[in-house]
Write a structure and sequence with these properties.
mainly alpha; Arc Repressor Mutant, subunit A; Tetracycline Repressor, domain 2; 2 domains; 82% helix; 0% strand
Protein backbone atom coordinates (compact mmCIF):
# COMPACT_ATOMS: atom_id res chain seq x y z
CA UNK A 1 0.00 0.00 0.00
CA UNK A 2 1.44 3.40 -0.89
CA UNK A 3 1.77 6.30 1.54
CA UNK A 4 -1.14 8.22 0.04
CA UNK A 5 -3.62 5.36 0.45
CA UNK A 6 -2.29 4.56 3.94
CA UNK A 7 -2.84 8.19 4.99
CA UNK A 8 -6.34 8.14 3.48
CA UNK A 9 -7.18 4.90 5.33
CA UNK A 10 -5.96 6.38 8.62
CA UNK A 11 -7.93 9.55 7.92
CA UNK A 12 -11.12 7.59 7.16
CA UNK A 13 -10.67 5.52 10.31
CA UNK A 14 -10.10 8.65 12.41
CA UNK A 15 -13.22 10.32 10.95
CA UNK A 16 -15.28 7.20 11.70
CA UNK A 17 -14.05 7.00 15.30
CA UNK A 18 -14.66 10.73 15.87
CA UNK A 19 -18.18 10.50 14.40
CA UNK A 20 -18.91 7.40 16.47
CA UNK A 21 -17.78 9.20 19.61
CA UNK A 22 -20.21 12.06 18.95
CA UNK A 23 -23.19 9.95 17.87
CA UNK A 24 -22.82 7.22 20.49
CA UNK A 25 -22.65 9.85 23.22
CA UNK A 26 -25.55 11.83 21.78
CA UNK A 27 -27.94 9.03 20.81
CA UNK A 28 -26.72 6.10 22.87
CA UNK A 29 -25.37 2.77 21.77
CA UNK A 30 -28.71 1.20 20.92
CA UNK A 31 -30.02 4.14 18.88
CA UNK A 32 -26.94 5.14 16.87
CA UNK A 33 -26.62 3.09 13.69
CA UNK A 34 -23.53 2.23 11.71
CA UNK A 35 -25.15 3.94 8.70
CA UNK A 36 -25.61 7.18 10.68
CA UNK A 37 -22.04 7.00 11.93
CA UNK A 38 -20.77 6.51 8.36
CA UNK A 39 -22.82 9.52 7.22
CA UNK A 40 -21.49 11.69 10.04
CA UNK A 41 -17.95 10.58 9.17
CA UNK A 42 -18.46 11.39 5.49
CA UNK A 43 -17.77 7.84 4.31
CA UNK A 44 -19.87 5.31 2.43
CA UNK A 45 -21.88 3.01 4.74
CA UNK A 46 -20.10 -0.06 3.36
CA UNK A 47 -16.69 1.44 4.09
CA UNK A 48 -17.31 1.53 7.82
CA UNK A 49 -17.41 -2.29 7.82
CA UNK A 50 -13.98 -2.37 6.19
CA UNK A 51 -12.58 -0.86 9.38
CA UNK A 52 -14.97 -2.25 12.00
CA UNK A 53 -16.88 -5.52 11.78
CA UNK A 54 -19.50 -4.45 14.34
CA UNK A 55 -20.75 -1.56 16.42
CA UNK A 56 -19.28 -3.33 19.47
CA UNK A 57 -15.83 -3.22 17.87
CA UNK A 58 -16.27 0.44 16.96
CA UNK A 59 -17.32 1.41 20.50
CA UNK A 60 -14.34 -0.47 21.89
CA UNK A 61 -12.06 1.53 19.56
CA UNK A 62 -13.69 4.82 20.58
CA UNK A 63 -13.07 4.03 24.24
CA UNK A 64 -9.52 2.79 23.68
CA UNK A 65 -8.60 5.99 21.83
CA UNK A 66 -10.15 8.15 24.54
CA UNK A 67 -8.19 6.21 27.16
CA UNK A 68 -4.94 6.64 25.23
CA UNK A 69 -5.55 10.40 25.00
CA UNK A 70 -6.10 10.58 28.77
CA UNK A 71 -2.89 8.65 29.50
CA UNK A 72 -0.90 11.00 27.24
CA UNK A 73 -2.47 14.03 28.90
CA UNK A 74 -1.59 12.78 32.40
CA UNK A 75 1.96 11.97 31.28
CA UNK A 76 2.30 15.50 29.94
CA UNK A 77 0.95 17.02 33.16
CA UNK A 78 3.35 14.95 35.27
CA UNK A 79 6.30 16.00 33.12
CA UNK A 80 5.48 19.70 32.93
CA UNK A 81 3.48 20.82 35.96
CA UNK A 82 4.56 21.67 39.50
CA UNK A 83 3.12 19.81 42.49
CA UNK A 84 0.67 22.65 43.13
CA UNK A 85 -0.43 22.75 39.50
CA UNK A 86 -0.90 18.97 39.48
CA UNK A 87 -3.00 19.17 42.62
CA UNK A 88 -5.23 21.78 41.00
CA UNK A 89 -5.57 20.02 37.64
CA UNK A 90 -6.39 16.70 39.32
CA UNK A 91 -9.65 18.26 40.50
CA UNK A 92 -10.36 21.08 38.05
CA UNK A 93 -9.96 19.03 34.88
CA UNK A 94 -12.65 16.39 35.59
CA UNK A 95 -14.99 19.08 36.98
CA UNK A 96 -14.58 21.33 33.94
CA UNK A 97 -14.84 18.38 31.57
CA UNK A 98 -18.40 17.74 32.77
CA UNK A 99 -19.51 21.00 31.16
CA UNK A 100 -16.90 21.15 28.40
CA UNK A 101 -17.33 17.55 27.23
CA UNK A 102 -20.48 16.05 28.75
CA UNK A 103 -20.61 13.51 25.93
CA UNK A 104 -17.56 11.77 27.42
CA UNK A 105 -19.40 11.12 30.67
CA UNK A 106 -22.58 10.11 28.83
CA UNK A 107 -20.52 7.62 26.85
CA UNK A 108 -18.91 6.27 30.04
CA UNK A 109 -22.32 5.83 31.65
CA UNK A 110 -23.56 4.11 28.50
CA UNK A 111 -20.63 1.72 28.60
CA UNK A 112 -21.14 0.94 32.28
CA UNK A 113 -24.78 0.06 31.58
CA UNK A 114 -23.80 -2.02 28.53
CA UNK A 115 -21.18 -3.87 30.50
CA UNK A 116 -23.72 -4.98 33.05
CA UNK A 117 -25.80 -6.70 30.37
CA UNK A 118 -23.33 -7.47 27.56
CA UNK A 119 -20.28 -9.60 28.33
CA UNK A 120 -18.55 -8.27 25.19
CA UNK A 121 -17.78 -5.11 27.15
CA UNK A 122 -16.57 -6.53 30.49
CA UNK A 123 -12.91 -6.43 29.49
CA UNK A 124 -13.03 -2.92 28.01
CA UNK A 125 -14.80 -1.60 31.13
CA UNK A 126 -12.20 -3.26 33.32
CA UNK A 127 -9.37 -1.80 31.23
CA UNK A 128 -10.96 1.66 31.14
CA UNK A 129 -11.40 1.75 34.92
CA UNK A 130 -7.95 0.30 35.56
CA UNK A 131 -6.33 2.86 33.25
CA UNK A 132 -8.22 5.67 34.96
CA UNK A 133 -7.17 4.47 38.41
CA UNK A 134 -3.53 4.14 37.32
CA UNK A 135 -3.46 7.65 35.87
CA UNK A 136 -5.09 9.17 38.92
CA UNK A 137 -2.80 7.16 41.23
CA UNK A 138 0.19 8.64 39.41
CA UNK A 139 -1.18 12.14 40.00
CA UNK A 140 -1.93 11.32 43.65
CA UNK A 141 1.62 10.01 44.17
CA UNK A 142 3.20 13.08 42.58
CA UNK A 143 1.02 15.44 44.60
CA UNK A 144 0.99 13.56 47.90
CA UNK A 145 4.29 11.72 47.94
CA UNK A 146 4.72 9.67 51.11
CA UNK A 147 1.76 11.40 52.81
CA UNK A 148 -0.60 9.12 50.86
CA UNK A 149 -0.22 5.58 52.19
CA UNK A 150 -2.33 3.91 49.50
CA UNK A 151 -2.47 6.01 46.30
CA UNK A 152 -4.28 3.23 44.41
CA UNK A 153 -7.16 3.22 46.90
CA UNK A 154 -7.33 7.03 46.88
CA UNK A 155 -7.37 6.94 43.07
CA UNK A 156 -10.25 4.44 43.10
CA UNK A 157 -12.27 6.72 45.39
CA UNK A 158 -11.47 9.78 43.27
CA UNK A 159 -12.42 8.03 40.02
CA UNK A 160 -15.72 6.87 41.52
CA UNK A 161 -16.32 10.41 42.77
CA UNK A 162 -15.52 12.01 39.40
CA UNK A 163 -17.89 9.65 37.57
CA UNK A 164 -20.60 9.92 40.22
CA UNK A 165 -20.49 13.71 40.38
CA UNK A 166 -20.59 13.93 36.58
CA UNK A 167 -23.63 11.65 36.51
CA UNK A 168 -25.39 13.82 39.08
CA UNK A 169 -24.68 16.98 37.06
CA UNK A 170 -25.84 15.38 33.80
CA UNK A 171 -29.03 14.11 35.44
CA UNK A 172 -29.70 17.36 37.33
CA UNK A 173 -28.32 20.56 35.73
CA UNK A 174 -29.03 22.45 38.99
CA UNK A 175 -26.67 20.17 40.96
CA UNK A 176 -23.93 22.26 42.63
CA UNK A 177 -20.87 20.63 41.12
CA UNK A 178 -18.52 23.34 42.40
CA UNK A 179 -19.44 22.76 46.04
CA UNK A 180 -19.16 19.00 45.68
CA UNK A 181 -15.69 19.31 44.16
CA UNK A 182 -14.67 21.73 46.90
CA UNK A 183 -15.58 19.12 49.52
CA UNK A 184 -13.80 16.39 47.54
CA UNK A 185 -10.65 18.54 47.37
CA UNK A 186 -10.84 19.23 51.13
CA UNK A 187 -11.11 15.50 51.82
CA UNK A 188 -8.04 14.88 49.66
CA UNK A 189 -6.06 17.68 51.30
CA UNK A 190 -6.92 16.25 54.73
CA UNK A 191 -4.97 13.13 53.69
CA UNK A 192 -1.96 15.37 53.05
CA UNK A 193 -2.38 17.30 56.27
CA UNK A 194 -2.86 20.50 54.17
CA UNK A 195 -6.19 21.65 55.63
Amino acid sequence: MNQKSTAKNQNNRAHIVAAAYRLLAEKGYDSATMKEIAGAAGVAPGLIHYYFTSKDELLREVLMEAGERYVKTVEQWCAELTREQLQAVTFTEPKERVTREPEWFRLRCELFALGLRNSNFHDVISLMLSTGRQCIARLVQQVGGDAIANPEAVAAVLLASFDGLALQKLADPTFDLDSAYQVLMQMFLAQLGDH
